[in-house]
């Protein structure tokens, strides 16, 4: 029966949808849930029946919009500055206390700063690296620490890290070198969790998107010669990744139907980068 359920889940995912109640028994913490990929993940997890803890930095309205269709008793909005580890820890503590458990941590929130190139001043270079590593590495690492210790007490759980193809191939714009390095660091940390705790029923997955249709990507494309059309022309499929596709993938991973996929990096870039 268990294999049949897994097969049904896999078929539903392949068809581009979600099974109602797929995540009914799970409480999921999503960081950066107020916009872009995180908002899509929060919506999808809620639609699949999960209790959703939606983290936001300053945009509470965005987090409210992303969780608007989730019943009030099945959602919790938490504010935290991911550049402040005390705030990060307080958020984790509140998240874990809400239902007495967190089943899945989705480390999604990140910053990409465009002014960290080699031609910048030394103070500017250092500032970009410090902020990037604080938000993109130290914060998710602290949440992973809390999640792993929590999962050990609960008998299992899962972590899904939203990384980037930049973690494997580097960045094309040297001004964003700190971003690429940070995504490689958080990918490695997630792999270490997968390897170190596989026997304790803790799974950890990495999702590595290419060019995703988010406000940040659109703003970046607008600064490039030829704009969005030129960016799309350089992709194998000619299309950007839609946040909803990533959200469906996260729901699939959070459902627990593919435990042997733990440790994998799932490339989502329309065949533009194949390892």
Detailed description of the structure:
It contains ten helices and seven strands. The protein is an alpha/beta fold. It has one domain: Rossmann fold (3-Layer(aba) Sandwich), CATH 3.40.50. It has a seven-stranded parallel β-sheet with strand order 3-2-1-4-5-6-7, with helices on both faces. Helix 2 runs parallel beside helix 3. The longest helix is centred in the middle third of the chain and has 33 residues. The chain is globular, with a radius of gyration of 18 Å.
Tags for this entry?
Rossmann fold, 275 residues, seven-stranded parallel beta sheet, alpha/beta
How would you summarize this macromolecular structure in one to three sentences?
By secondary structure, the protein is α/β, with parallel strands linked by helices. Helix content is 48%, strand content 13%. The protein has one domain (2-268): NAD(P)-binding Rossmann-like Domain (Rossmann fold), CATH 3.40.50.
Helices and strands in order:
Layout: H1 2-14, E1 27-30, H2 36-47, E2 51-56, H3 60-66, E3 75-79, H4 85-98, E4 104-107, H5 122-154, E5 157-162, H6 166-169, H7 177-197, E6 202-209, H8 215-222, H9 227-233, H10 243-254, E7 265-268
Parallel strand pairs: 1-2, 1-4, 2-3, 4-5, 5-6, 6-7
């Amino acid at each position: 029966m268990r294999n049949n359920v897994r097969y049904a889940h896999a078929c539903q995912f392949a068809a581009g949808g979600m099974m109602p109640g797929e995540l009914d028994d799970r409480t999921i913490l999503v960081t950066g849930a107020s916009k872009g990929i995180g908002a899509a993940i929060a919506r999808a997890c809620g639609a699949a029946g999960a209790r959703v803890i939606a983290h936001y930095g300053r945009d509470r309205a965005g987090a409210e919009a992303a969780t608007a269709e989730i019943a009030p008793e099945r959602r919790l909005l938490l504010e935290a500055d991911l550049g402040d580890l005390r705030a990060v820890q307080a958020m984790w503590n509140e998240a874990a206390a809400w239902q007495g458990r967190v089943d899945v941590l989705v480390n999604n929130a990140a910053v990409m700063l465009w002014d960290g190139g080699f031609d910048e001043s030394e103070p500017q270079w250092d500032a970009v690296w410090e902020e990037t590593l604080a938000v993109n590495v130290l914060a998710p690492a602290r949440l992973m620490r809390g999640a792993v210790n929590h999962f050990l007490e609960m008998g299992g759980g899962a972590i899904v890290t939203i990384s980037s193809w930049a973690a494997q191939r580097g960045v094309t714009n040297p001004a964003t070198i700190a971003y690429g390095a940070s995504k490689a660091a958080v990918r490695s940390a997630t792999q270490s969790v997968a390897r170190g705790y596989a026997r304790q029923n803790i799974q950890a997955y990495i999702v590595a998107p290419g060019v995703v249709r988010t406000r940040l990507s659109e703003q970046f494309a607008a600064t490039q010669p030829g704009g969005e059309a030129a960016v799309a022309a350089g992709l194998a499929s000619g299309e950007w990744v839609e946040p909803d596709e990533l959200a469906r993938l996260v729901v699939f991973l959070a459902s627990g139907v593919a435990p042997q996929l733990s440790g994998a990096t799932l490339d989502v870039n329309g065949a533009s980068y194949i390892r």
